[in-house]
Predict the 3D structure of the following.
Amino acid sequence: MQHSLFISDLHLCESRPTIMKAFNEFLAHTAIHADALYILGDLFEYWAGDDAIDCGTHSETIDALRQLCSQGVSVFVMHGNRDFLLGDRFIKASNASLLADPTLVSLYGQRILLSHGDTLCTDDLAYQQFKLQVRSKQWQLQFLSQPLASRIAYIESIRQKSEQQKSVKSMLIMDVNNSAVSQLLSQHDYPTLIHGHTHRPMQHQHQIGNHRCERWVLGDWYDQGSYLRVDKLGIHPRLL
Ligand code: LP5
Ligand code: MN
């Protein structure tokens, strides 16, 4: 049966060889049978700029995506909060297509809205403030003009700060805000929503006026790989 697959939050990096192996096996044995693979952000632990293309295991990941494309599977990549600097060089090298956040797709008779998910975490004011800063064109140009090694060192320090702050933020603050979800769904005429980022895989129901919408949250790949399969029968969560 025709189907497409959805993943996010793999956080691939050299120091997580088991996830890298799981990802390669997933591409070779599972994704190969799909029409398309949608990667909804945070494929990488972090992306310091496209000149990091040869760093660590990045080229291995890119080659694997390119090979999947050459076997007839369309690959779509959305920016996450950790790899929003993925740019033209990455896209050309991997043969993937970059998806805007959010993107509405129509698959096997279902309207599905795709997002990384961090935009919906509107109660996390410190994060949203940080995001506003680092997503500005001007800030990015200035950041990317620094040598790669300095950028990596800077990101490592932000990562530490982020982990420190996350340890004292409540789980509620770091989850999506219900009104933000309702607003997004109503703006797109009440589709099904698939997103990642919160690392809390689950199927949710949202009643918005007379409309009932499903929201599917993708899991991370820290302990076990997982994905959503979409076909004409619906949406199916799968563990590797
Ligand atoms: O990623 P995750 O899930 O662990 O945590 C996120 C939020 N944290 C982040 C930070 C990233 O993890 C690390 C940076 C990624 C690299 C990007 C590449 C290039 C940009 C370089 C950046 C300098 O996104 C976390 C959320 C959490 O999700 C749940 O939603 O809570 O947010 C934070 O922890 C952010 C802090 O609250 C505030 C930011 C601290 C840094 C302050 C330094 C100010 C420097 C300003 C730079 C312009
Ligand atoms: Mn994320």
User: Anything to note?
Assistant: The chain has a mean pLDDT of 98. The chain has one domain: 3-239. The first strand starts at residue 3 and ends at 7.
